[in-house]
Specification:
The chain is an all-alpha fold. It has one domain (about 1-130): Up-down Bundle (Four Helix Bundle (Hemerythrin (Met), subunit A)). It is built from four helices and no strands. The longest helix is centred in the middle third of the chain and has 31 residues, at about 35-65. It is elongated, with a radius of gyration of 17 Å.
């Protein structure tokens, strides 16, 4: 149960970094601001690596839960969107690193947009588990 309580504490930092990094990247590309693009890349890299740590805590936390039918769907959707988020951001970072040119840039932007969408969906379902179903929260009677 320790990791089920730790995961929500860890996950907000990478979520903020990935959202900010994606928005900085879009803004920096539109305005052609190199400083903003450098900040975007820093946030995306740090956000991705810290998201991996949060994901490990989430997996260990999920393994420690007594999964009840009332929140099983939310847990599955949260895990699927979180996994897709990691894959999409990893793919985006790899494309940015190794695929130059107009096609690589277009694919990079598409992957970032898809990653951001999955990130927001994962956050929604994580919030549902905590706030609607009280998963890994103390019960006050």
């Amino acid at each position: 149960m320790f990791f089920a309580k730790l995961h929500p504490l860890l996950v907000h930092f990478p979520v903020a970094l990935l959202i900010a990094g994606t928005l900085f990247e879009f803004y920096g590309k539109l305005q052609k601001e190199e400083a903003t693009l450098a900040a975007a890349r820093f946030n995306l890299l740090l956000g991705f690596w810290t998201a991996l740590a949060a994901a490990v805590a989430g997996i260990l936390g999920a393994l420690s839960l007594d999964v009840k039918p009332k929140f099983k769907t939310a847990l599955v959707l949260h895990a699927e969107f979180a996994s897709a988020t990691l894959v999409l951001f990893a793919a985006a970072l790899l494309v940015r690193r190794f695929w130059k040119g107009k096609t690589g840039t277009s694919l990079y932007v598409i992957l970032l947009a898809a990653g951001l969408t999955c990130l927001l969906a994962a956050g929604y379902w994580g919030g549902e588990m905590v706030h609607r179903f009280g998963v890994a929260t103390p019960r006050i009677n």
